[in-house]
């Protein structure tokens, strides 16, 4: 017996009877799930497509409309769930990127702070090194200047000492020359004194001889006159 020979009302009744277990499963099991649960949406979509197809065959517009509405609702909820899941994934990804960016910014700030601190420490070290080098250079220049001053003072002292020694030598030589001259003059004076004494002695002798000769002549004249 063909389908067209069976009254549509009987077929509709038979479908409702055959659909009861599916409706019971929906009411007792799937209805307790979340309205956007993927399993419930797939079940409701399948049931809606079945109702729409059977309603179209049996010319049951209400069943066809309810089935199409249920399938469309399931598709809409599925799309909404997919979009929400996609949005959630995007949001999670954005949050992860934000967290990563935040961590990177924090890391960059930390690195910048560390770089700044290292730069400050390097600047302090460089300044301390420049100060130490400048102090060493200043000490070195001061030591060299003191050495030059000491050497100049030593040369001047040596020059003064040499001049003093030369002056003392000149004084000593002058004194020696003066002593020699004085001794020479004293010797000359002594020689002259001895010469004068000798001449005086000789003069005294001559005078004595002259007196003797005079007395002798007087005696001879006296004898001659007598």
UniProtKB/TrEMBL annotation:
This is IF2 family translation initiation factor. It comes from the Bacteria. Residues 82-226 are annotated as: Disordered. One of its GO terms (molecular function) is translation initiation factor activity. Keywords: Initiation factor, Protein biosynthesis. Residues 87-154, 162-214 have a biased composition (Basic and acidic residues).
């Amino acid at each position: 017996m063909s389908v067209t020979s069976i009254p549509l009302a009987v077929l509709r009744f038979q479908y409702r009877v055959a659909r009861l277990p599916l409706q019971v499963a929906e009411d007792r099991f799937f209805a307790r799930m979340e309205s956007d649960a993927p399993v419930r949406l797939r079940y409701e979509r399948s049931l809606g497509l079945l109702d729409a197809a059977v309603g179209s065959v049996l010319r049951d517009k209400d069943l066809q409309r309810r089935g199409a509405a249920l399938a469309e609702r399931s598709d809409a909820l599925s799309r909404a769930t997919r979009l929400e899941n996609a949005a959630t994934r995007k949001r999670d990804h954005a949050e992860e990127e934000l967290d990563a960016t935040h961590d990177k910014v924090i890391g960059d700030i930390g690195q910048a702070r560390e770089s700044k601190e290292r730069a400050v420490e390097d600047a302090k070290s460089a300044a301390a090194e420049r100060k130490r080098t400048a102090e060493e250079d200043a000490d070195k220049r001061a030591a060299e200047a003191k050495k030059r001053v000491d050497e100049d003072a030593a040369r001047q002292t040596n020059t003064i000492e040499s001049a003093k020694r030369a002056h003392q030598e000149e004084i000593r030589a002058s004194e020696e020359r003066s002593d020699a001259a004085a001794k020479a003059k004293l010797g000359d004076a002594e020689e002259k004194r001895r010469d004068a004494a000798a001449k005086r002695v000789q003069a005294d002798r001559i005078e004595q001889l002259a007196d003797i000769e005079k007395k002798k002549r007087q005696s001879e004249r006296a004898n001659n006159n007598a």
